[in-house]
Amino acid sequence: MVLSVSERTFTQEVLESPIPVLVNFEAPWCGLCRIIHPLLLQFQTQCSDEIKLVGVNADENFKLSTTYRLKSLPTLLLIEKGIVRQRLEAFRSRDDFRMALEEIKLSYSSSYKIYNSSETADLECQSA
Fold first, then answer.
1. Of 10-14, 18-22, 26-30, 45-49, where does mean pLDDT reach its minimum?
2. CATH superfamily ID and name for 3-127
């Protein structure tokens, strides 16, 4: 189940989260939102330790919709330490969406982060 977030809880659950948060802006009338929902649940199961998934009803949280300049639904924002790192919108297909989720999963998996930190340390040593 995806945690539902509102304007009241957004700062605590998203902006102050110790791990990156994938925010799904959706609405009950949005057909595409319902189509991608199973893919998001699968993503949540696979990445729950590295990325938190939350849902925001765009109709009921107009301030957030305006703040993040939503143009279409669904719109997903990957927010890390209060900063939007990635924006997913205007999906061409279900496969297009699935590939975008895979990229996020790969970039935030533990093994990738460990590899990247050691690579960064190597680069720092070389430049010193």
1. 45-49
2. Glutaredoxin (3.40.30.10)
DSSP three-state, residue 78: strand
> In a 10 Å sphere around its CB, with 0-12 CB exposed, 13-18 middle and 19+ buried, how is residue 101 labelled?
buried
**Residue 100 pLDDT:** 92
Whether 125 is catalytic is no
Q: Show the tokens assigned to 17.
A: 């989260």
Q: Which among 2, 27, 30, 100 is annotated as catalytic?
A: 30
Domain ranges of the chain: 3-127
Q: Which two tokens stand for residue 14?
A: 């998203």
Whether residue 80 is predicted with pLDDT greater than 80 in this model: the reply is yes
pTM for the model stands at: 0.84
The average confidence (pLDDT) of the chain is: 87
Catalytic residue among 14, 33, 77, 104: 33
Structure tokens at 42: 């699968």
Classify residue 17 by burial, with Cβ atoms within 10 Å: 0-12, 13-18, 19+: middle
